[in-house]
Amino acid sequence: DRQTLVAVLQFLRRSNLRESEEILRREARLLGDDLGGNVATVATSSPGVAAVAAVPPGKGEVRGDCGVGPCSAGTLGGTASVSSISSPSSKITHSGDVIGGAVVVEDQPDVSAVLSAYNQQGDPTLYEEYYSGLKHFIECSLDCHRAELSQLFYPLFVHMYLELVYNQHESEAKSFFERFHGDQECYYQDDLRVLSSLTKKEHMKGNETMLDFRTSKFVLRISRDSYQLLKRHLQEKQNNQIWNIVQEHLYIDIFDGMPRSKQQIDAMVGSLAGEAKREANKAKVFFGLLKEPEFDVPLDDEDEEGENEEGKPKKKKPKKDNVGSKSKKQDPNAPPQNRIPLPELKDSDKLDKVMNMKEAARRVRLGPECLPSICFYTFLNAYQGLTAVDITDDSSMIVGGFADSTVRVWSVTPKKLRSVKTAADLSLIDKESDDVLERIMDEKTASELKILYGHSGPVYGTSFSPDRNYLLSCSEDGTVRLWSLQTFTCLVGYKGHNYPVWDTQFSPYGYYFVSGGHDRVARLWATDHYQPLRIFAGHLADVTCTRFHPNSNYIATGSADRTIRLWDVLNGNCVRIFTGHKGPIHSLAFSPNGRFLATGATDGRVLLWDIGHGLMVGELKGHTDTIYALRFSRDGEILASGSMDNTVRLWDAVKAFEDLETDDFTTATGHINLPENSQDLLLGTYMTKSTPVVHLHFTRRNLLLAAGAYSSQ
């Protein structure tokens, strides 16, 4: 429709989107002079909606909805649709609506604007026929295409059902749902339950899941051959209704090459918005580790002799005096040292590093032949409801967050927890004495448990700072609190989330921390700022867990939308989107070398990801319930997972990550080949009596500590 086209071109010109205008003009073969008349209103000849999505300047080219080159404007159904791909971090750009003939551009996907996309309806009585026709076509197609095309069933089913409901054909909607909901994959059961409760137009207004489905295009990855087959079928059948939905609501990511098998597709799908676009995982990620700072280490002679029981003279290792110079070479995949500002090392940090290195020298080398001992901390009589656990890096303290809104800190060593003396007593201390750090502590306050009061709701996340001076806790009350472990008082309450905060974690270098919550965003904070430094927006449901990369330049977030995202701390961009879990994500762990990420979810599977290539490289099956804890051993040989099924399982991480197929073809198309059976990676399963595992931690010598609260079922 020419008038619509002219209006769209004028809109693009007004918005200074010259590039998009040019592309559309070339497609429609319109010359510049044709825009002479100033058209005030737009009369669309069909009842369609002209949806105009603007491209932010400098972000990619305009691609048609079909994902293959620019589609011609004014495709089926008379809707001119110019859509765009911007960077993954920018969410929906503009949705334009033709209201009363004038183009209105809205920045936010307003509910009514989002839903009005359902106005272009076909004959409601034919929906079942359309769908069953497509179903018949797909089921009769060749095996190699059937698996790929079957991905269409779910998004089409949902959109057709919602379209019927929106246009108030309630009985047709009901019969459509009843007839076809049984055909959907089992991992969409929860979504279908929500869907079945939407039976009237009014229900759709306030439903978040619904809005997500409407505003985010469902991504399907299909080979070119399968796509051509589908397109030909729909055009021959004149099946405009289904073709409109494909154009309007699906993003088909087309690749050249062999179609994927059912197993390959099943491994990757299952999230709220389909798979990730391949573009989303192309950005470069600096996954290497930062170089350790160098400093001289004083030699402890007594220490050396004390260790040597046989009384032989101990040979001094020549490199002992400069332990800090472990890694002279810069990791080629590491970010520049000063890419983000990190806090400087204090003297106490250097001492701690020295201790760490000494412990590391006595560390047990783990492997299939040498499994770690596991020490389980059971919280007994935790009638307050244990909701979070953390253990300090040196394994000296353990903290529990509870549903009664308290935070409880225990000392796990014979050394009791003490507070600093009052100001009056401190003024009497000789500041120059060698043991001044001992003298400032008040012996009268020594106890092995301290209770911190302040939150007004269950505490869902806790995290110790690397220097053990601070503790973070986040709660249902929407705040993150920073506590001093010198005075055992609250120093700051960070308010930014308006809803429950599900997780928080300190950066491995201290100073920065991350939080994620029910408001679907993760926030990056610095301890000395009231406001967040970065807001990471993009998930379609709650952010349930957060983790810093070992080099502190990236943050991983797991969400109830069943995806994991990796964010760049420097600029806030989303650099990886991982799909494949069939339930909300509840645990994340980076391998010590920074190359891999392990994730656990309510589906009882642990998935392994190669961060550099943006690929799934493994799947560990064995748990029968949600996985709440994942941890790699200190050298990365073993991955431990802890679950609600009351078990800790140990997996052979070395074997899981060796001989990875990460050639260009696999990376480009996502043809991943996971081993059929992960049992040969399972090194051991350890049952507790009746204690779900909430937290795991490897000590500096590779002893595995686990924690959970006894549940008397």
Automatic annotation (TrEMBL):
Pfam families: TFIID_NTD2, WD40. Keywords: Nucleus, Repeat, Transcription, Transcription regulation, WD repeat. Transmembrane segments: none annotated. It is found in: Nucleus. CDD domains: TAF5_NTD2, WD40. One of its GO terms (biological process) is transcription initiation at RNA polymerase II promoter. One of its GO terms (molecular function) is RNA polymerase II general transcription initiation factor activity. Residues 320-331 have a biased composition (Basic and acidic residues). WD repeats lie at residues 379-420, 452-487, 494-525, 536-577, 578-611, 620-652. The TFIID basal transcription factor complex plays a major role in the initiation of RNA polymerase II (Pol II)-dependent transcription. TFIID recognizes and binds promoters with or without a TATA box via its subunit TBP, a TATA-box-binding protein, and promotes assembly of the pre-initiation complex (PIC). The TFIID complex consists of TBP and TBP-associated factors (TAFs), including TAF1, TAF2, TAF3, TAF4, TAF5, TAF6, TAF7, TAF8, TAF9, TAF10, TAF11, TAF12 and TAF13. The TFIID complex structure can be divided into 3 modules TFIID-A, TFIID-B, and TFIID-C. This is Transcription initiation factor TFIID subunit 5. It comes from Ploceus nigricollis. The lineage of its organism: Eukaryota, Metazoa, Chordata, Craniata, Vertebrata.
